[in-house]
Amino acid sequence: MALTQVSSNKCCGGYQKVFEHDSSELKCKMKFGIYLPPKAESGKCPVFYWLSGLTCTEQNFITKAGSQQAASEHGIIIVAPDTSPRGCNIEGEDESWDFGTGAGFYVDATQDPWKTNYRMYSYVTEELPRLINSNFPADPEKMSVSGHSMGGHGALICALKNPGKYKAYDATVLAASYSGPELDILIDQGRDDQFLSSSQLLPDNLISACSEKKIPVVFRLQQGYDHSYYFVFSFINDHIKHHAKYLNA
Amino acid sequence: MDVYGLRGPLQAIAEEMAVSEEEEAEGDEEAFVVVRKRPVTSDPAASSDMYCSDCGTPTHSGQHTHHRVVPLPDAVILNICVCMYVLYVCASVCVCVLQENFGRQEQNLEQHYSDVLQTLAQRNSENSTSLQDQKKQKLEALYGQLLACGSLLDTGKELIENAQELHRCTNRNEEVELKVGVSMEFTTPPVDLTVVKQMMESINVVPAPSAPVMNPQVVNSATTSSLRVCWSLFSDDTVDFYQLYCPVYMTVPSPPIIRLQECLSCLEAALVRWDSGNTNPVESYTLELSEADTHSSVTESIVAIPTCECLVQLQPWKRYVIHIRAVNIGGASERSPPITISSTGTFFPLLKETAHPSLSVSPDGFTMFYLDEDLPISEMVFSDSNFSSCVAVLGDLIPIRGQHYWEVEVDEWAEYRVGVAYEDTQRTSYLGANATSWCMRHIRTPSRHKYEFLHNGWSADVRITVQPLQIGVFLDYERGILSFYNAHLHQHLHTFTCCFHHYVLPCFALDKPGALTLQTGLTTPKYITHP
């Protein structure tokens, strides 16, 4: 479980780093971005896991979302993993943008040839937190998960399948059934999202399911915004603050 | 004061003068010149030994040869000049004393005569009233007589006719007697002038003392039931007793009454309001502030408060006991009954005078009801301060630009608006529909609960899956934010960002009949203050 530092840049008083390691779950080399706030130099900090969307790598979020400012302010470590195993030489993994490489969907595959490598759910909920907690000044009791697009869905799945594991959740899409400790889910959705208008996203289903199950969700339909990282950039502060409320409680 | 009384001091003055005059420079009175010269020259020829009656001056023998000159012994000269001076001094002192006494006498006499005149005038008016009464009675009697006279005339006429008839038959004379039955004399009631006489006589008895001089009231010289009155008098007046009239003196005021339900507070300050409770004039009020838990005496006083309210700065997270005293020239009143204020949260009631006529506010000022039966428009009383369209009411938030938190309890059927508005927000407009109000609105549709966060008629599009029944409202002037929370879930619902240039007041409205309860004085939860 040796970590190799790929890059390190000072940012907002802390450091934005990228590490590479050999994943036991995914059986390949994996990269993740990690932002260490100034507070991490003197003590343990809660960790905020960010799950990116389709086609993304660990780079998209750390270069485009501008999350470091709020993370620095609230003293939160942000971990942004890659979205799928890479270089596994599985037939057809690079054929489609929404399946295979860059499209792990944060689930554990159950069929060959995928089930050996495509274990993103186990990776983000088990292996990666273990790795982070043992190598960085992270508070293992305080973690939360969030994401965009496919990552948002992933975050919801992680949260709903692991009652009590994550302190706060939010996502941009999808439905759930849940029983466990009270959640507090914040969802922002761009009103001009091309996937919303093409009915690939079904927020009403999620809202009615959550209403029925009394899962607290605040769903904000943001006028004029689309699916891009400009949208993520615009609301990331609200989300980090939302998480900070629980992580720093 | 008599002249004999003056003798002793005058002699003393004269002796003193006689000595001091010797040292004085050459004077204008020749008599003094002589006195002065006597000890200077021992030559008897040089001293004045003669008196020139033509010139009226002492002189030396051999001078004034053509005048009538008489010898003048030294002792006489000395006596004359001393006496002259003594008389001069004596006369001037007497004149002063007399002038003063005359003035006082004159004043007394004037007073006395005006009293006498007043008494006389009173008697006169009494007499004239009784005479008027007599006159009236007599006139009435005369009127009666007149009527009787009329009937007598008729009788007389008949008698005459009878007489004429008789005359034709016999030559008999008959007499008819008419008599006025009212005495033409007035009885003058005896006028009792003994009092007036006494008053006239008393003028020449002991002179009335001069009016004492009232000293102005001294600060802090009174209590609620007593006063210290001081006056001065002339020492030579004989006084038996004083009569006291004191319209210009004041007892200390009664303690004010704190209006408990209208006192506001927050972390940093309290607004205390009270009623004067006095008919006596109150010049100002004093607020006394002490920390409740330290059992110390007064830690702070605010003095010279001109009105019946005071905004007082507090330290957060403490309990204070506050008393008010009313102050006038007599001193400070007793302390009012105390009020205990905790600087742990923002406390305020609803402002009943702003409530829409259809809205009733509970006596404690924290619950509002919109009853099902609608009042007819004709029975609604509107003023400038109450809402006329939106069934709304404002809260009386303390004017402090800090952080404030309050909660609103609603039931799941309530359709409401809660938020803040500027004090002068349009009373004809709906909350959230204008630029002067910000609010969260709940609407029930057949399929779902709809929430709006309204300002200037525009709302963000927000879906909320769990209906908030206890809404936390957080206002932070410094950061310019107004946030709404589901207080049960600690769930953030929405935040308005706006620089509130003026003070805002909490606002509450019911769009459908129902009830809404306000909870204030709460400590802002940590999840809001330390996100």
From TrEMBL, chain A:
UniProt name for this protein: S-formylglutathione hydrolase
GO biological process: formaldehyde catabolic process
An example Gene Ontology CC term for this record: cytosol
Family: Belongs to the esterase D family.
Presence of the UniProt keyword Cell inner membrane in the record: no
Record key words, sorted: Hydrolase, Serine esterase
Pfam families: Esterase
Gene Ontology molecular function, alphabetical: carboxylic ester hydrolase activity; S-formylglutathione hydrolase activity
Function noted in UniProt: Serine hydrolase involved in the detoxification of formaldehyde.
Active site: S149 (charge relay system), D193 (charge relay system), H227 (charge relay system)
EC class of the enzyme, as a word: hydrolase
Enzyme Commission (EC) number: 3.1.2.12
Automatic annotation (TrEMBL), chain B:
Organism per entry: Astyanax mexicanus (Blind cave fish)
Organism placement in taxonomy: Eukaryota, Metazoa, Chordata, Craniata, Vertebrata
Classification via SUPFAM superfamilies: Concanavalin A-like lectins/glucanases, Fibronectin type III
Presence of the UniProt keyword Oxidoreductase in the record: no
Domain B30.2/SPRY: 328-527
Alphabetically ordered keywords of this record: Coiled coil
Name by which UniProt lists this protein: Fibronectin type III and SPRY domain containing 2
Domain Fibronectin type-III: 252-346
